[in-house]
Amino acid sequence: MDKVFIVPEPKRFVFNGNWFSFDGFNNLPEFFRKEFNIPQGSWVIKKIDREGTGVKIKEREVEIWGEEKVSYATIIQIVMQTKKRLPEVEIEEEFHFPFRGYHLDIARGGVPNLDTFKKILRWLFLLKYNYFGIYFEDLFPWQKYPQIGKLRGRLSREELEEIISYGENLGIEVFPSLELCGHMENILSLPEFTRFSEWHRPQEGTINVFDEEAREFTYDLLREVVEFFPSEHIHIGGDETWALGRGKSLDKTNTFKGPELFELHHRNLINIVRDKGKTPIVWGDMLTGMYLRPDEREKWKVVLESEIWDDVIIANWDYTNLSEKHFREKINLFGKRKEKQIVCPGFSNWGRFYPSFDIAITNITNFLKPAKEEGVKGFLVTSWGDDGAEALYSFLDPLILANMEIAEGNGNWEEKWIALSGERHEVLEVRKLFGNDLFSMTIKHVFLGTPTFRYYSEILKDNVHRREKSTGDLWLDYYMGFIKNLKDTEALLKEYEKMLEKVYNVTLPEDLEMIRDMLRIGIKRLRGEVNFSDFVEFGNRYARLWLSERKKENLEVVIVKIYGAAGRADLRIF
Question: Is the CB of residue 529 less than 8 Å from the CB of residue 497?
């Protein structure tokens, strides 16, 4: 190998073509040597005073300056690629975003085991992320309420302490991401807490903020997390609280007070965090009502007028593949608080078995470019688990790299993924092929024979070219724009068959091999040939891969869908 890649692309990279024999380091910190399997040898790492951050490799010596952890990550990236030799290089690094974060939802799917958490943190360190948010909902180990999350694989305090410590060793702040207003369905569905629900169905997830006892309950939850975590940042949630002010509180007041209740509740949450000298993070959508209907949006705009948001970081999320202009406008919705926000693109891995690379890469690119130009504080790229987090964590590694390269480098993520992963180019091409919109957004419905698939393929099949009317729901309309391909099963079958032909003879890692099997089974369904054994074999493989990276709890959320499809195939129901 005569070329060396660094993620993200450095500010300055000088390589004169010379190579030195490398046998290992004699003073690389033991933690890095052990965790990244770097040999012990005669080379010396020397810290020097110099402006900025960088690495200079000379014969038998590596000089580093500035951010030490960033320099170590660069050195390890080089060793991973070059093995027993090192290039004579000088590298200067500089970051646009001081906050470079990854946000992982563990609440709607499987909880990563400790080895997986550490693997994720090592990958984040190598790529120079410095923040890792764990989205808990009910899976934090509250001592005051030990019943919360008990049956869903919640993390123990000992596990969390080990994760936090491991991150600290890598220069990554591990911080909690909570839900203390909406998205509390797994807590509110427990019998002793249903009385706190705003809505008549606790599964809707919004707490009755009008009720003082309900508010105090959430403050108890927050205080325990704040006391436990050493992190500077505490994410208090606050997104999608659409039912707030519309249920029990409306019954009491006879007046819609959603925005007022939101401001009151979050004022108290923010004060709890600030009183401990920490920085609150809050999702930004309800501050402007950005995802509500126009008439509803006007009611929520008053929330942003409150001074309480002066003391928080606003997490501005948007997962669409719309234009840079759209995202620039979104960034500027927050007025004077623009520079304190962090933008939150997403990996489009939720509600499907494989992430949509096309949507994710466009979303990341078109969100981060204006964020950089508008002077935003940083980014927190998100991985969600809606509908059971069916997509394996292993599928996200290339996207984690791509996000950093797009954010801080030159965007050339493909060859850097190959360099650091050791993967063959043809395998990467399969990854990207599976990540195209047509496949990633439809295969789950075809594979499982979902009601959505049946509705489009049986009810709407005669209206293939008809333009669907807007539902008035931004996200539903956006999603329907992709799954309309289910109408024309003949065209979809042809596309699937072309894909299978391209990937049929490629030797793949087992997780991608599983997706190829899903494609094969999808083709059989479209031909009317699907059978019981297809799903049983697939389910066994899926369960094995799940259990290699996650705890056993919540596997049933996905596996019942697969075996349910097997049962329907066996009974020839559809």
Answer: no
**Of 436, 457, 433, which is closest to residue 445 (Cα–Cα)?**
457
CATH topology for 12-93 is: Double Stranded RNA Binding Domain (3.30.160)
pLDDT digits (tens, 9 = 90+) for 140-156: 999 999 999 999 999 99
Tens-digit pLDDT profile for residues 54-70: 999 999 999 999 999 99
Spatial distance between the Cα atoms of 33 and 308, rounded to a whole number of angstroms: 45
List C-alpha distances in Å: 333 to 116, 139, 313.
Answer: 37, 33, 14
In CATH, which of 3.20.20.80, 3.90.230.10, 3.40.50.300, 3.40.640.10 is domain 99-181+209-239+281-416? Answer: 3.20.20.80
24 has pLDDT over 80? yes
Extract the tokens encoding 125.
């360190």
| For range 118-124, the mean pLDDT | 98
Interatomic CA distance for residues 262 and 264, integer angstroms: 6
What angle in degrees, to the nearest 10, is found between the helix axes of 510-527 and 425-434? 40
Query: What does pTM read for this prediction?
Result: 0.97
Q: Cβ atoms within 10 A of the Cβ of 133, count?
A: 24
DSSP string, 259-297: HHHHHHHHHHHHHHHHHTT-EEEEESHHHHTTTS-HHHH
**pLDDT by residue (tens digit) across 367-389?**
999 999 999 999 999 999 999 99
Q: Which contacts of 553-561 are long-range, i.e. CB under 8 A and separated by 24 or more positions?
A: 553/110, 553/111, 553/151, 553/152, 553/153, 554/109, 554/110, 554/111, 554/152, 554/153, 554/388, 554/389, 555/110, 557/109, 557/387, 557/388, 558/109, 558/388, 558/389, 558/390, 561/388, 561/448
Find out whether 221 and 272 touch, Cβ atoms under 8 Å. Answer: no
Q: Which residues are catalytic?
A: 240
Are 574 and 445 spatial neighbours (Cβ–Cβ below 8 Å)? Answer: no
Check residue 336 and give its pLDDT. Answer: 87
| Residue 129 scores a pLDDT above 90 | yes
Which amino acid would we find at residue 319? Y
Q: What is the mean pLDDT of the chain?
A: 95
Q: Compute the distance between CA of residue 548 and CA of residue 546 in angstroms, rounded to an integer.
A: 5
Say which residue the tokens 């391209």 belong to: 502
Where in the chain are the domains?
12-93, 99-181+209-239+281-416, 427-571
